[in-house]
Amino acid sequence: MFKGLIGKKIGMTQIFNEEGLAIPVTLIEAGPCYVTQVRRPEKDGYSAVQLGFQEVNPKRLTGGQLGHLKRAGVPPLRYLREFRVKDPDVSEGDVVTVERFSVGERVDVVGTSKGRGFQGGVKRFGFGGGPKTHGQSDRWRAPGSRGAGSTPGRTMKGARGPGHMGNERVTVMGLEVVLVDPERNLLAVKGGVPGPKGGLVLIREARKQ
Questions:
Q1: Least buried of 78, 121, 123, 179, by fewest C-beta within 10 Å?
Q2: Other beta carbons less than 10 A from residue 79's beta carbon
Q3: Total count of domains within the chain
Q4: Residues 95 and 56 occupy one common structural domain
Q5: Interior CA angle at 71 toward 70 and 77, to 5°?
Q6: Is a pLDDT exceeding 90 seen at residue 11?
């Protein structure tokens, strides 16, 4: 059975289980999503399901986007994302909700991490920095040597150092589903998921069960 949803991160809270232990969870407003396209190997070369999420004013979409959604018989939608599946058991125009998931199940959550701007090596990669004593005055959070001497006489490609941090696609794998609320389209997963509050996330069946 196809298990995938597009959602919006609401934030973190905690849920108490039967033993009275507090479980840290992330609440996600997941769906309802519309099936906007089903890709088949014989036509597209691969098998996938395209979902649409969050209804929007038609004026915010292009003519091509509106035509694509109209062909599937769904309303104007802001976000379209594709999920690779071996055997799609859905059809264009179907509505997918959180009821496809169950408590205790494992899921993978994909999101875009918070952008941190330009950061130094200590924050970005956990560098130790220089000595805090022995006369040093401004080398405490410096990266130190970046490479060898006369050979090769340059910094090797891919060396870690200061630079842009965050704002990348991140996948957190194997999170446990703690709560499923179909009435409010809510899904609660144990632990944290990437991105800020209100950020777009993709929820899919865990690859590693």
A1: 123
A2: 15
A3: 2
A4: yes
A5: 40
A6: yes
Can you give the residue range of the structural domain that contains 137?
A: 119-146+153-165
Q: Which two tokens stand for residue 199?
A: 């950020």
pLDDT of residue 106: 96
Residues 112 and 130 grouped into a single domain = no
